[in-house]
Amino acid sequence: MSGTASGMRKGLTSYGDSEFSLFLRKAFIKGMGYSDDALDRPIIGIADTSSGYNACHATVPDLVEAVKRGVMLAGALPVPFPTISIHESFAFPTSMFLRNLMAMDTEELVRAQPMDAVVLIGGCDKTVPAQLMGAASAGVPAVQLVTGPMLTGSHRGERVGACTDCRRFWGRYRATEIDEQEIADVNNQLVPGAGTCGVMGTASTMALVVEALGMMMPGGAAAPAVSADRRRIAEATGRCAVDLAAARRTPDQIMTAKAFENALTVLLAIGGSTNAIVHLAAMAGRLGLNLDLDGFDRIGRRVPVLVDLKPSGQHYMADLHDAGGLATILRELRDLLHLDCLTVTGRTLGEELGAAPPPWPQSIVAPLDSPIYPEGGMAVLRGNLAPGGAIIKQSAATPGLLRKTGRAVVFSSVEDMAARLDDPELDVTEDDILVLQNTGPKGAPGMPEAGYIPIPRKLAARGVKDMVRISDARMSGTASGTIILHVTPESAVGGPLGLVRTGDVIELDVPSRRIELRVEPDVLEARRQTFVAPSHADADRGYKKLFLDTVLQADRGCDFDFLVPPEAGPTDKAD
Ligand code: FES
Question: Cα-flanking dihedrals φ and ψ of residue 36, to 5°?
Fold first, then answer.
């Protein structure tokens, strides 16, 4: 934490006379009815991300009250403040485009306003990484609270939840298996209330890996948004923030290289969202650490998928909470974790695991010796098509497609795909490999979740459920299929993906971690000579210009280059 001043004296506005600055500050905040006794306490900021556009954060006002209660019970002064809030479906062109803006907003408000610690209330996919990126850079003691998963709905007797079932029903509608009335009916049931998506999507994944990272109260990841448990966790988080402030325990003391290894181990064991790799890389990067993709793949060879949640499995986050939450997973992984890592409570991960409630019979988390899937949920691919790496969520892929050689059918952009994919005349068979270009960090821009390329309608209508699909885009954590993502370098900066043409042969071999474009080098070089980077409207001003000028590739977390300290070192140096 910068400086030794605390409470209201922290970060005084510059008027040239610090005592006058404090006098003026107190005069203004007393306009809200505060006493000197209250203003002499340590101050706990509460990042309030409630928004009329964000149903995933609909309970934030309740959580703010519960956090305030915890802070005051511990003798400090809670001060909520608003920040940017991002919802996946209400962010044009894509929420990822705005994540770094939220991170900058959070960092600057945490640094600019007087607070001895901050409670970050997030939940929806991009909000948690944005808040932790910002807090890491601000260097102020911080603890994450998530809004928690939504409950499930029911459609004609079938349990449903956002958003794996959103995609499943939409796929059935595209295949004409269900009619207009049924798709309208299910639309009312997929999001039955407040909270984050109830499957192992990005929000659930980030909640679990952040608890494993040590930046959240133990047990804080899985409690449903509308549960009493969630409010008790919020109260405990408020108390925790007061302790963090007293100890001046900053994020860099918790988010260490070894803690990131713990997070990656949990990410693999939960069959988590591929997006988490990008976010963890960005969070680590803020603390000068490089997330090592090949090290991640090596961890994946020995960490199997244990959690039976959609989209890889059958159940929902509320079921994981009933099964004991993250502690049940950590218990199985105990021998694979760095248990000496510090957490926000001031105790180690191992001490917190020892203090967790005892296990009980459950069927959501499999034992390590009888996993759901024998390897980690994700694999890192390399080859001449992805020299900087690519990701596949192998646990959600079709096993028979993990080794596949096929003819490429190329779409040059999201718009090109939208225009041609469902054309009955499109030259495509189920043995082809669909390739989508220009959907990476700079290409779209913002690396949208366009990697879940729909099955062409004429094939879907014939019952084709999965094909190999390759792009430099991301994919929603709630989606499934044999989908290769985050191809680096992206096509828009001249990566090999941008040189693929329809009719080329691509060879995928996930067990060998290879992805190759079978085209002669001189042919590729000739194509490279005629490569033209895509242009974007309104690219010469504002945030879009900043984004396009400075965004890093997926392997660096898509952060902005000027927000990452230069002394980045590898996270694989943990021992
Ligand atoms: Fe917010 Fe899924 S849309 S968590």
Answer: -60, -35
Atom of ligand 1 nearest to the CA of 204: 4
* Strands of 319-468, DSSP E: 379-383, 386-392, 403-411, 433-436
Contact 364, 309 (CB under 8 A): yes
Report residue 572's pLDDT band, with 50, 70 and 90 as the boundaries: very low
- For helices 275-286 and 202-213, the axis angle rounded to 10 degrees is 40
CB of 439 sitting under 6 A from ligand 1? no
Q: How confident is the model at residue 2 (pLDDT cuts 50, 70, 90)?
A: very low
What is the spatial distance between Cα 165 and Cα 139, in angstroms, rounded to a whole number?
A: 40
Residue 213's nearest CA partner among 142, 302, 158 is: 142
Burial of 512 (0-12, 13-18, 19+ CB in 10 A): exposed
Which fold, 379-535?
A: Glucose Oxidase; domain 1 (3.50.30)
Structure tokens at 530: 């005629």
Provide the 3-class DSSP secondary structure of residue 172: helix
Residue 98 token pair: 């705005």
Cα 547 from Cα 539, distance rounded (Å): 9
Ligand 1 pocket test, pick from 50, 54, 124 with the greatest ligand atom count within 8 Å of Cβ, gives 124
Q: Is 86 in the pocket of ligand 1 (CB under 6 A)?
A: no
| C-alpha span between 388 and 380 (Å, rounded) | 10
Q: Is 124 in the pocket of ligand 1 (CB under 6 A)?
A: yes
Helix ranges, 270-382 (H): 275-286, 293-302, 317-322, 326-333, 349-355
Residue tagged 């802070």 (tokens): 71
Each domain of the chain, given as residue ranges in start order, spans 18-151+193-255+304-355, 153-187, 379-535
Nearest CA residue ID for atom 1, ligand 1: 124
CA 56 – ligand 1 centroid, Å: 6
- What is the identity of the amino acid at 542? G
Whether the model clears a pTM of 0.85, i.e. scores above it, the answer is yes
β-strand partners of 154: 159
Beta bridge partners of 470: 435, 484
Which DSSP symbol is given to 408?
E
- Compute the C-alpha angle 76/77/81, nearest 5°: 140
Tell me how far the alpha carbon of residue 203 lies from the centroid of ligand 1, in angstroms. 6
Return the number of other C-beta atoms located less than 10 Å from residue 562's C-beta.
8
CATH code 3.40.50.2300 for 18-151+193-255+304-355: yes
- Please tell me whether residue 287 adopts helix, strand or coil conformation: coil
pLDDT digits (tens, 9 = 90+) for 429-460: 999 999 999 999 999 899 999 999 999 999 99
Structure confidence by residue, pLDDT tens digits, 53-81: 999 999 999 999 999 999 999 999 999 99
Q: How far apart are CA 91 and CA 182, in angstroms?
A: 27
